[in-house]
Amino acid sequence: MAANIAGIVVLAVFYLLIFLVGMVAARKVKVKGQREGHIDASFVAGRDLNTVVGIFTMIATTVGGGYINGTAESIVSQGLVWTLAPLGIFFGLSIGGLVYARRMRDEQYVTLLDPIQEQYGSFAVGLVYMASLCGDIFWTASILSALGTSLSVVINVDLTIAIWASSAVTVIYTTIGQIVAVAYTDVAQLVLITFGLTLSVPFVLTNERVGNIGANSTVWIGSIDKEFAGLWADLLIAMTFGTIPWQAYFQRVLSVKSGKQAQILSIVGACGAVVLVIPSILIGAAAVSADWSGTKLEASSMDSRTSSMILPLVLHEFTPTAVAILGLGALSAAVMSSMDSSILGSSTMFTHNIYNNVIRKQASNWELLLVQRFTIVVLGLLSTVISLHVPIIYGLFILAADIVFVIVLPQLTCSLFLKRTNGYGSVAGFLVGTLLRLGAGEFSFSFEPFIFYPFYDDKLGQLFPFRTFSMLCSCLTIMFVSELARYLFEGKVIPSGCDVLQAFKRAERYFVRTVSVTEESKMHIEESEMKSYTNVS
């Protein structure tokens, strides 16, 4: 009982430390436009985020509970060769930095939906926002579930209480401090993550019940059978490009001072994410090699069907109590650093792209701030409820990446780089991508397929690279339908009055940037940026 109390006390100190860092940052750290109440200070830190802080927050956002706990779970259940999230995230952030980040930052965008809204209009952006929102909620739910299971194992705290407490602390400081509080708490959280996980690994690997993990390397490394080669490639591609179209990622690259700094954040963040996943890989390998017969579990984690709790179980059984608690504190920090980024990103997109650009175009800065804070609370509650009812951590993590990969990525890419595409292509591409992905089913949730792709097996499921296929079909649909619509409307085959999406009308676009070009806001825009906005106005 004493150990449980000690664990609760240590975690309470961790939570209090993170909360205080967020509150102090919100009060003391000032960015452009914050004193005057400009909403862009809440959205993108006034484009004034310190580069070093930006790097820390980028890494901390990526290295979340789903990433850390899910990696160890995947090592145990499928093997290292099938644990594709670390490799995919490394490639994804690198490609995001080289291809997308600078373009988005140079265009002065606030969210990843901005180019979509600018190119395709409000109806299309509403559809894409719903897909992005689902991705954020599933991602947040996965990391909350990871933390809840860890707390219940190591310090015997009720799962429901653990998840609600962690969610409440995160929602409070995110609501009050927005991007500034989130960025600076990420610095503290990353330190805790690095310290806690690094400290625990030597104790795990030297435990006599773990033995030599190299002796069982063929087991925990795993293998790829020939019939699964297409599925493996499909997952790697999905994890790679599914890393890019997240507002949590773009909120950071859009908050720094230049496009070059945005690229630096992405590349360094990719390297940091790979380094910090090493402890999780080693812990997963130790779990496979360990003799569990002498533990309270009395069986291997796989035999007991508890692979989703493998990381906290290893810490609990194969490290001293104090080390296990510190490792749990690292996982708690990882969860909070990703959850705050996720709900902040979704709330920013809703406030900026839906509320301000569609529902209330004349909303004041104060009104937008209230809307964002209210949305943060709602999203936090929704993610918490889902995490309590869907315990499959890695399944949620993969599904979230699937959604943004198949649906959001084609929309973002085409709107940024293919300026001949339009709203009709966007809507058609959205529908095609959604249908093809849902048709494949989802084994993690026992959702049966209604589209049987080539090589489908009744026992093994979909062996065809359906994710990549769905994404490419969505992309091609956007381009084809856009050209068809252009031919029909510009060729007068269909009257211009039937252009319900206003894709070909010369009237003013629905899209309105958050940072308006007024005499007041010009004072807070760099000279080069002001020229761009003045030309638009």
Overview of this structure, please?
The protein is mainly alpha-helical and 537 residues long. The protein has a single domain, classed as Up-down Bundle (Sodium/glucose cotransporter), CATH 1.20.1730. Helix content is 70%, strand content 0%. The protein has 21 helices and no strands. It has helices at 2-28, 40-44, 51-62, 65-77, 85-106, 114-120, 122-154, 159-205, 217-221, 229-241, 247-253, 259-276, 278-289, 310-318, 321-359, 365-389, 393-417, 423-439, 466-490, 519-522, 527-536. Helix 3 crosses helix 8 and helix 7 (122-154) packs across helix 16 (365-389). The protein starts with a helix and ends with a helix.
How many domains make up the 3D coordinates? 1
Number of strands: 0
Tell me the CATH topology.
Sodium/glucose cotransporter
- Helix fraction, binned, reads 55-70%
Q: Major sheet: size, sense and barrel closure?
A: none
CATH class, named: Mainly Alpha
Q: Would you tell me the structural class of the helices and strands?
A: mainly alpha
Beta strand % = under 5%
Using the CA coordinates, give the radius of gyration.
Answer: 23 Å
Low-confidence stretches: 506-537
Number of helices: 21
Just name the CATH architecture: Up-down Bundle
Oligomer: single chain
How would the global form be characterised? globular
Measure the end-to-end span. 66 Å
The CATH fourth-level homologous superfamily: Sodium/glucose cotransporter
Taken in chain order, the helices and strands follow as: HHHHHHHHHHHHHHHHHHHHH
* Chain-averaged pLDDT: 82
Task: Summarize it.
The chain is mainly alpha-helical and 537 residues long. The protein has 21 helices and no strands.
